[in-house]
Every structure is written in structure tokens, then in C-alpha cells.
Amino acid sequence: MTALPPEIRELKKLTRLDLSWNQLTGVLPGIRKLKKLEKLDLSENQLTGVPPWIGELTELTDLFVLRCGLSSEVVAEVKRLVPQGCEVHV
Fold it and tell me: Is 65 domain-assigned?
């Protein structure tokens, strides 16, 4: 999968989303409305960062970005943007 299907935005009660091992690139779009997300796995994709609104996902407790090729500067920015108490796994 190289892009998220638009229907994913309608899954507003979704608490876990595993998008690992896909071919997602750039900054992940399309999940802003998933306010109930607790765990988000983006590992093994070619991401350049996460969107600045990631902090709006206030229920997020775990964000996995293992082996995404993120620079240390981007990882620091991700850790700054996520909600307080969210663990970033790199």
C-alpha cells in the first residue's frame, strides 16, 4: 500500500492501527479524524516525518516509527509533537 484509502477517515472509533511494512512515503496524511487512536504503528515505511497535528490524537499512547529512516532531528520533532505521555518507539 502506498497511500491510505480515504475510507479510513471514517473509522472514528478505531483504537489501534497497524500500517507497518507498507510503502508509505512522506508525511502521513488521512488519520487526523481518528481521535480514539491509542496505538499507531508506522514502522518499516519511508516516512519523512509526522504531521504537526499528531498532538491532536490525545488518546495516543504508543507511536511506532521503527526503521522508517527518520533523522535524529525528525525524531526529536516527533517526540515534541506527540501528546504528553505518548511513547515514541524508534
Answer: yes
Structural domain span for residue 15: 10-24+32-89
In a domain, 2, yes or no: no
Distant-in-sequence, close-in-space partners of 14: CB < 8 Å, separation ≥ 6: 34, 36, 37
Burial class (CB in 10 A: 0-12, 13-18, 19+), 28: buried
What's the rounded Cα separation, in Å, for the pair 75 and 62? 14
| 34 DSSP 8-state letter | -
Mean pLDDT by 10 residues, the chain (90 residues): 88 96 86 95 92 94 95 94 96
